[in-house]
Write a structure and sequence with these properties.
The complex is a heterodimer of chains A (110) and B (114). With 110 residues, chain A is mainly β. Chain A has no helices and 11 strands. Chain A is globular. Chain B starts with a strand and ends with a strand. Classes of the chains: A mainly beta (110), B mainly beta (114).
Chain lengths: 110, 114
């Protein structure tokens, strides 16, 4: 069964707007990671946040983690058409396995 | 580094045939993962290796699937006999096991079983 569940399943925004995607999970984690997948391609790692961290930034990306609520959010600021992709959260527990959520499909309209 | 290399990129075969997917991980990475992605089931972990040893194969669907890692630079995922429901994109990923690091994904193999 999947650990992470993303919300929303699909998101359509105008270029320049911010995009927020949420992820919920069920069990204790070591860290949580976000990946991007362009159509027909493999997944690309975006950012990793450890269980003892609450917020992390990387360029236009901002990730938050609330372990009490078992949830995370990914914010992409000043979106670009090139950000159009599917975004997945993935949790890592003590077994070292990445368990992926169902993903959010983001469309950034030019 | 060339990244994770998978071959073939596309495979079309008939039901009942044997299919072998290949993966070359990034040099120096000691963990290798095989995933399957479908619209219905999303991204599923099939099996992963650490230092060439299979650690967890609980995601392997059934006995028709087998995976090997004879050395640190090569792994195979075999399906015998293949069935139409095996049609999916199969990804290989590698990582440095020791620090829960990010995984680096290959481009995937799109398998179609007719």
């Amino acid at each position: 069964s999947q650990q992470g569940e993303e919300d929303p399943q699909a998101l359509s925004i105008q270029e320049g707007e911010n995009a927020t995607m949420n992820c919920s999970y069920k069990t204790s984690i070591n860290n949580l990671q976000w990946y991007r997948q362009n159509s027909g391609r493999g997944l690309v790692h975006l950012i990793l946040i450890r269980s003892n961290e609450r917020e992390k930034h990387s360029g236009r990306l901002r990730v938050t983690l609330d372990t009490s609520k078992k949830s995370s959010s990914l914010l992409i600021t000043a979106s670009r058409a090139a950000d159009t992709a599917s975004y997945f959260c993935a949790t890592v527990d003590s077994s070292y396995k990445l368990i992926f959520g169902s993903g959010t499909r983001l469309l950034v309209r030019p | 580094d060339a990244g994770v290399i998978q071959s073939p990129r596309h495979e079309v075969t008939e039901m009942g045939q044997e299919v072998t997917l290949r993966c070359k991980p990034i040099s120096g990475h000691n963990s290798l993962f095989w995933y399957r992605q479908t619209m219905m089931r999303g991204l599923e972990l099939l099996i992963y290796f650490n230092n060439n040893v299979p650690i967890d194969d609980s995601g392997m669907p059934e006995d028709r699937f087998s995976a090997k890692m004879p050395n640190a630079s090569f792994s195979t995922l075999k399906i015998q006999p293949s069935e139409p429901r095996d049609s999916a994109v199969y990804f290989c990923a590698s990582s440095d096991f020791s620090s829960y690091n990010e995984q680096f994904f290959g481009p995937g193999t799109r398998l179609t079983v007719l």
